[in-house]
Design a protein that fits this description.
43% helix, globular, 164 residues
């Protein structure tokens, strides 16, 4: 288990089709290298608010097991894992997530949202799942300890506002 940043996105139109072609070529071994996967993931994250990105959601998951993400057909970069699916494949993945813990349900919900994004407007899209491992899983004791006191980064906000 790991603490990880998860990103679920959907890209529509010609750009979505281009992403599907890119992933197919990588899976076939053509032009694949781990650095290319990482560059793709960084570009998607940097441009998540621009069209034709139809859906973009990113969160830190402190517990979910890595065997659920980034999903079927994943490619390994040095920093990221990534997969590209059709909306139907994303819904199938969501149905396999399980319901044993909140994290599984959150992932399934995000996958369904991405698969449905602008469905009546955009004819088809590529649904992407990204995973970036940030460290080991967070223990309950660590969460409880973090709830006592206010972190320095938050304390500094008020002081910064007073000096302007």
């Amino acid at each position: 288990m790991a603490t990880q940043r998860l990103t679920i996105a959907s890209i529509g139109g010609d750009a979505g089709a281009a992403v599907e072609v890119l992933f197919r070529s990588w899976r076939a071994g053509s032009l694949f290298n781990p650095e290319a996967v990482d560059r793709f993931c960084e570009q998607l994250r940097a441009n998540g608010t621009t069209l034709p990105v139809l859906y973009f959601c990113e969160w830190v998951d402190r517990w979910l097991m890595g065997d659920l993400v980034p999903g079927p057909g994943a490619l390994e970069g040095r920093r990221y894992q990534a997969t590209c699916l059709t909306p139907n494949q994303a819904r199938e993945w969501a149905n396999r997530c399980g319901e044993q813990c909140d994290e599984e349900q959150w992932l399934a919900t995000r996958l369904r949202e991405a698969a449905l994004a602008w469905e009546g407007v955009a004819n088809g899209c590529a649904v992407l799942g990204l995973r970036e491992v940030l460290g080991g899983s967070t223990l309950d004791e660590e969460v409880l300890a973090s709830l006592r006191g206010v972190p320095d980064w938050l304390l500094g906000i008020e002081a910064q506002g007073e000096s302007t």
